[in-house]
Predict the structure of Winged helix-turn-helix transcriptional regulator.
Amino acid sequence: MNTVTVTHTSALARLGHALSDETRASILVALREAPAYPSDLADALGVSRQVMSNQLACLRGCGLVESIPDGRHAWYRLTDARLAPALGDLLALVLAVDPSCCGPDCTCV
């Protein structure tokens, strides 16, 4: 069995912080599918470009997304390809534990 260290728990806490905000969670779910420009993410999620910028900065700080320069712009992607299936597994687990969670009558928020 692997020993859990402060570094491990700190990494999990960063992931938890990233997922604790619905906009950040939505960004991560969107970036599972494909890299994207911040303006496209903002439009797709219905948030302002300022909100998107702030949330992407937080996700960069958590080490979950990275910015890739593209001329005068930059696009974003998940920092590690293993994040996409891990997020999918986490979502499937949450819905398996409580299938009514996050439905129209959700009281878990």
Notes: The chain has a mean pLDDT of 88. Residues 6-97 form a domain with the Arc Repressor Mutant, subunit A fold (CATH 1.10.10.10). The longest strand covers residues 65-70.
